[in-house]
Design a protein that fits this description.
Protein name: Alpha/beta hydrolase
Number of strands: 10
Distance between the termini: 16 Å
Largest sheet: 8 strands, mixed
Number of helices: 11
Strand order of the largest sheet: 3-4-6-5-7-8-9-10
Structural class: alpha/beta
CATH class: Alpha Beta
CATH superfamily: Alpha/Beta hydrolase fold, catalytic domain
GO molecular function, one term: hydrolase activity
Strand content: 15-25%
Number of domains: 1
Keywords: Hydrolase
Region (Disordered): 1-22
Helix content: 25-40%
Order of helices and strands: EEEEEHEHEHEHHHHHHEHEH
CATH architecture: 3-Layer(aba) Sandwich
Domain AB hydrolase-1: 67-153
CATH topology: Rossmann fold
Length: 334
């Protein structure tokens, strides 16, 4: 059984449990209640740095790391995905990136550098082999982990993932096209933007469900359908309000690192990759998914008809099932 693999890294402190009782429901105004993670804490990943994590599902199951979008945090995992994990032997783990939740602010040299942190977290949690899945801004980091750890990442999944914007593999357009233009100015304007973002979240906290509903009303039909579902609203609000209580630097760090060379080439990702993308995505164009998948050695693209940027979250059970079947197929070939 996968999950008892490698020993903790020397010098890494064991994960600390959240001070809040695990498993107790959080009631969000005007939306359904949502269960807290079974285990939640922090892992030391470097000198004076830590990253937060949240576990769902079967603690003895095969490990699947879920990398959140931009913005997002460790609890940005659909309720259906959590339930599927519990009933199908999956140890589902959400990971914060630096500058969100209880994670230490840090700017990676490139996207690839994140893989060292995930490797450390896997070591501390006793995980050998794993699947990695990333939503939107979590997509580049998912590919980085697959490129850096082909001996441990068995399969990878991407939901509406961001594509490279620079170099031979770069593609323009979409929101990241704008982000690439803003990125050079972030060293100067990043701090005011981060403070403004935290202030905005604090200001809307009392009316967060109403604000989410308003955002849903101006979203494309696909995303609107998801955001109007109580379980999705509860998940997004719980993740946003919990993750941004003290800081909101991670989205700006993502934009900065996405706009640079990622530190690896797409053809260096030898791990099987399965990619789901809404064909009406208004944030990361569907063409970006086609662009990346066409450059990966072993990848398949599934178009989500009529769906927009969040479409992959609506078929999380199907996606997790597909990745586990692919994992079985990889094991059979070994």
């Amino acid at each position: 059984m996968v999950g008892s693999g490698l020993p903790p890294c020397a010098g890494a402190k064991p994960p600390s449990r959240s001070e809040r009782p695990a498993g107790r429901a959080t009631l969000l105004p005007m939306v359904m209640s949502i269960e807290r993670p079974k285990l939640e804490g922090n892992v030391a990943v470097g000198a004076n740095r830590q990253l937060g994590f949240a576990e769902f599902g079967d603690p003895l199951g095969r490990a699947m790391f879920w990398l959140h979008g931009t913005p997002g945090a460790r609890r940005q995992i659909p309720v259906e995905a959590r339930a599927y994990a519990a009933h199908h032997g999956i140890r589902l783990i959400g990971i914060d990136r630096p500058g969100i939740g209880s994670s230490t602010p840090h700017t990676y040299a490139n996207v690839l550098a994140f893989a060292d942190d995930l490797r450390t977290i896997a070591d501390v949690l006793g995980i050998g082999q794993m699947a990695v899945i990333g939503l939107s801004g979590g997509g580049p980091y998912t590919l980085a982990c697959a490129a850096a750890m082909p001996d441990r990442v068995v399969v990878a999944g991407v939901l509406g993932g961001v594509a490279p914007t620079v170099g031979e593999e770069g593609i323009g357009g979409g929101l990241m096209g704008f982000g690439s233009k803003v990125a050079p100015a972030l060293p100067l304007i990043g701090l005011p933007l981060r403070l403004a973002a935290v202030g905005m979240v604090r200001a809307i906290r009392p009316i967060a469900p109403v604000a989410l509903y308003a955002y849903g009303r101006i979203s494309p039909p696909g995303d609107r359908r998801l955001l109007e579902r109580p379980e999705f609203g509860a998940m997004f609000l719980d993740d946003l309000l919990n993750g941004s209580r003290k800081q909101l630097a991670a989205p700006f760090a993502d934009v900065a690192v996405f706009a640079k060379d990622w530190g690896f080439r797409l053809d260096e990702v030898k791990v099987p990759v399965r990619w789901w993308h809404g064909d009406k995505d208004h944030i990361v164009p569907f063409a970006h998914g086609e662009h990346v998948v066409g450059r990966l050695p072993d990848a398949e693209l599934t178009a989500l008809a009529g769906e927009s940027h969040l479409g992959g979250l609506g078929v999380a059970e199907e996606i997790m099932g597909s990745l586990m079947e692919l994992w079985d197929a990889v094991d059979e070939k070994r």
